[in-house]
Design brief:
Catalytic activity: D-ribulose 5-phosphate = D-xylulose 5-phosphate
Number of domains: 1
CATH superfamily: Aldolase class I
Distance between the termini: 11 Å
Strand content: 15-25%
Pfam family, one: Ribul_P_3_epim
EC number: 5.1.3.1
Number of strands: 8
Number of helices: 8
Shape: globular
Bound molecules: D-xylitol-5-phosphate, zinc ion
InterPro entries: Aldolase_TIM (IPR013785), Ribul_P_3_epim (IPR026019), Ribul_P_3_epim-like (IPR000056), RibuloseP-bd_barrel (IPR011060)
Function: Catalyzes the reversible epimerization of D-ribulose 5-phosphate to D-xylulose 5-phosphate.
Length: about 220
């Protein structure tokens, strides 16, 4: 599949979401951060806005659920129009069942790990997922500083995927910019979320291409 760029609309203007989606027409995905003020100390948007955005945006929606009880809510995001639904390992009670429900409804299923959550306990259930999202900041807010301590986990995840002969994508989220994207691509990431780097740039589409080129140039896998 190669390198994919997923701008996060968390830093976009929430009153102009359709225009903000159009401003990153080169992007592979639109990353939508759903926060419930419980799993993280911030509140963003939910099902009705995802439903409207799925109709208004040309890119597929990559919904990142930073919510409690994703087992209950995640499948509904597929019905709302998301093409990929990511839920957190720390919040779910039945990851296999939830991933299977997401896939049965026709979307890609992904498991997200906060910076201090290891990948190793999930080795045996990797095949239940289409993607692993490795957070490189503590979830909750855009514009935070990239946590270098998360890079070895990207490498270990890539090794586990190869060991089992699987075809999972590794998505990285938090503090991704022209400064930090290369070290993540080198470690084995292939889907890159970028919020502030893209939406605070003079031209968001130009930044999408810049990030794509930087990552592609150091990718060997
Ligand atoms: C943070 C969100 C991210 C956020 C990234 O909890 O999951 O998707 O928007 O923003 P930047 O790229 O500014 O760190
Ligand atoms: Zn996110």
């Amino acid at each position: 599949m190669g390198i994919q760029i997923a701008p996060s609309i968390l830093t976009a203007d929430f009153a102009r979401l359709a225009d903000e989606a159009a401003a990153v027409s080169n992007a592979d995905w639109l990353h939508v951060d759903v926060m419930d003020n419980h799993f993280v100390p911030n509140l963003t948007l939910g099902l009705p806005i995802v439903e409207s955005l799925a109709k208004a945006a040309s890119q597929p929606l990559d919904c990142h659920l930073m919510i409690e009880d994703p087992d209950r809510w995640a499948p509904g995001y597929v019905e709302a129009g998301a093409s990929s639904v990511t839920f957190h390992a720390e919040a779910c009670r039945a990851p296999i069942r939830t991933a299977r429900e997401i896939r049965a409804k026709g979307a890609r299923a992904a498991l997200a790990l906060k910076p201090a959550t290891p990948i190793e306990p999930y080795e045996d259930i990797l095949a239940e997922f289409d993607m692993i999202l490795i957070m490189t900041v503590e979830p909750g807010f855009g514009g935070q500083k990239f946590l270098d301590v998360c890079v070895p986990k990207i490498r270990r995840t890539r090794d586990l995927i190869a060991k089992h002969g699987l075809d999972l994508w590794i998505e990285i989220d938090g503090g991704i910019s022209t400064e930090t994207i290369e070290r993540c691509a080198e470690a084995g990431a292939d889907v890159f979320v970028a919020g502030s780097a893209v939406y605070n740039a003079d031209d968001p589409n130009t930044m999408v291409e810049k990030l794509r080129t930087l990552a592609a140039d150091v990718t060997t896998h």
